[in-house]
């Protein structure tokens, strides 16, 4: 029983990581129908901005983190949208997918060449601290990740439902044509989502990299986990991303412990297929309301 | 004004045209290495070790008066690409070929070099590489066939283990580690009660550690890749598991120690080469490398560096650039640092291309590797 | 119009002639590149049927190449001659394509990506873990090249022609398919599935057929790939291969007959050429892909139209 609890608690902790990566992904999809195959690399790279700032500019961690945030907002938020997404939005789903694939390769190789091929340690808030949850051991870092993931989702939900800008974003997501007619500045709203995503991935990066270690190929697993978590939970609901992430983390652990270690990565995917077959909007999702 | 503008291009052209006259004074060596993909860390170290050796040798006049013209072909840790690059290498007709490092790439490519009768010095450690007769193939580090029995012996004699649980990386080396170690352990009366494959992309090792806690073996043997190892160690530490941890080169890697922090303390393992060997010549190499490349070398850099110098030494002994004479000389050869300082640890090769060298049992103490035992060469080659 | 057609035919003839003669002068490395291009073209043609003509996004093409390759690897080790292996591979991929394609009925294009993703992961894990069948991480070594009708295709030159021959018959078959009533049905599926259904086209059946055919072509490519590299293991058939194939189709021009050949040319040959850039070549490759998609989303085959549109757009 002890062990089962340990597995569930660890699964929730890992699930928090997946959720953070998935939230921005779901957001981009919701408001601009962008499937960002480079999302994993987006979470990987701010950590390297920080490491580079600390190494080459000798900045302390908090200053490097702020600088990384600014760079992310500009590059992953504004530049990405203007240079890559805008020209491709009307060309259909697949060209954008391919372009983001090319982008992920570019980012990955860039980090490998300009920083290092070797995995790097990354400063955590309190590396060794562990916490005991009903007898199961979990690192403090994981608890923080969990907390931030939940807080982020709540904050986003409030923003979207309660503020004027948030409601404009929702309108853009549901029906951009009508939204424009009603005076919503659609393009601004979309740009805002990209900026929010850039901010989210930076936070995710800072929280997640101490556990993952900074490595140029982190994006591969994180990206995959983000897609699965977002879709299983509900692509068009932000809180679906958290739920999907948790579910993914727990199922991965339980299947690895009780079913098969060698096939552990296929079980979440099988879950994905089942969800798509029987509930394509995701477990927590609403049936797609967007009218094109 | 126009005349001046023409001068530089003309000079360059003249120099380029005269280059062939110099080209005959070089000896070509092709190196296949992994600079991207899962083998990137090993391949990059191997590549840098080769370069450092080549630069030093060339600065000192080259081999038999000829400078080494080193060409690197990148394999992307992809066997298909590796095979293509090997074909390109063979077409280039080099004196010898270095690399690749990863055993699954060596397997695909060694036949091509053999067919072309070009000596190959590779970094692969899988035992099956020397199972088929190939007089042109030479290892640059100890085969698993020799290292794993030593590890089993250590677990039996020093740790008095009766039961073992193996965590292995789900690739060819990990699998053969599990298979060979299980066999060697059984020969000494130890039982491998369970084994679990792991993946370098795996973040969560809770399930694996839980299984270890449930089964409670005497020793946990870990052979995973660097990132996975670090995460595994952290999970062990987090769940407060105190079973002794034993491994080999991957467990003791500098990157693992750096990433895992205090969770790495107390692990023990076998290494063929390590940057912390107390030997002064080895330390001189490490200092030079760190100064040139800005980071500590790993065992792959040491392997390749010594291999290049071994080639130089043997070639000079033979007196000419003759591939068949080279391989004949190297079979059964022993080089000591006195004879060739570039080979800073005494090394021998047998008639199968297997390498023999001393090896070490190392532990991690306060974040630093420390040698706790030196194991002599296994001695099946004439000394 | 007639002049252009004749000119196109002449260009095609010239290319075919070049393909027939060029290998004679090549050494093993170049022969290998040409053979790899031919094999990848077959797989890309298959994906083009699925994606370009029928509009279904598949991330599983790499897995089908793997299945074809392992079929040959396993059966030739049991002394089967090549042609029966090819037949088994085709049947197996058709069947699996049908099964995997079944969920395609229930979901729309974005979600199919993930169903095929699951299949690719499953296939990769089977290749990796089931040692008794696939050799696991040790793979299958020494895969022989075929000997048929008294000719041995052992040498690099002969095998190169073998690959080109297979590419030829596959190309002919697909061209016939596209111009047949089936081809028109696929086109209807891609352009407007709702309308097609209203007009009585059984979208369900045609979707499955497109998927199965595309997968079978992937399998054929696999049967050619295994003897080409003589050794296969799980590392070659990961998601990366599926992504590369998708890249080939998009870069070449999705839905265009000539697309796969151009795309395979770019994806196979370009990285080799870019090696001059040294360590930066993969990075440059990624950047080029992004730029290509931005400036030419209908791929290289659509380049003439894209240029014409741009010229037309500027007043």
Strand content of chain C: under 5%
Question: Terminal Cα separation of chain A, in Å?
Answer: 50 Å
- Average pLDDT of chain A: 84
The protein's oligomeric status is heterotrimer
Helix content percent band of chain A: over 70%
What proportion of the residues of chain A form beta strands (DSSP E)? under 5%
Low-confidence stretches of chain C: none
Separation of termini of chain C?
Answer: 27 Å
Main-sheet strand order of chain C equals 1-2
Helix count, DSSP H or I runs of 4 or more residues of chain C: 15
Largest sheet of chain C: 2 strands, antiparallel
Total number of distinct structural domains of chain A: 1
Topology-level CATH name of chain A:
ABC transporter involved in vitamin B12 uptake, BtuC
The helix fraction of chain C, in percent, is over 70%
Overall shape of chain C: globular
Can you describe this structure?
The complex is a heterotrimer of chains A (292), B (383) and C (315). With 292 residues, chain A is an all-alpha fold. Chain A has one domain (2-278): ABC transporter involved in vitamin B12 uptake, BtuC. Helix content of chain A is 74%, strand content 3%. The radius of gyration of chain A is 19 Å and the shape is globular. The model of chain A has no long low-confidence stretch (mean pLDDT 84). In chain B, helix 2 runs parallel beside helix 11, helix 3 (79-91) packs parallel to helix 4 (103-115) and helix 8 runs parallel beside helix 9. A seven-stranded mixed sheet of chain B has the order 7-6-8-9-10-14-15, with helices on both faces. Chain B has a five-stranded parallel sheet with strand order 2-1-3-4-5, sandwiched between helices. In chain B, strands 11-12-13 form a three-stranded antiparallel sheet, with no helix packed on it. Chain B has twelve helices and 15 strands. Chain C has 315 residues and is mostly helical. Chain C has a domain at 31-238. Chain C is built from 15 helices and two strands. Chain C has helices spanning 2-21, 28-53, 61-77, 82-101, 103-106, 109-129, 131-134, 156-179, 181-191, 193-198, 203-229, 239-252, 259-274, 281-295, 303-313, and strands at residues 147-148, 151-152. A two-stranded antiparallel sheet of chain C has the order 1-2. In chain C, helix 2 (28-53) packs parallel to helix 8 and helix 3 packs across helix 11 (203-229). Chain C is globular, with a radius of gyration of 20 Å. Chain C starts with a helix and ends with a helix. Chains in contact: A-B, A-C, B-C. At the A-C interface, helix 3, helix 4, helix 9 and helix 11 of A face helix 6, helix 12 and helix 14 of C.
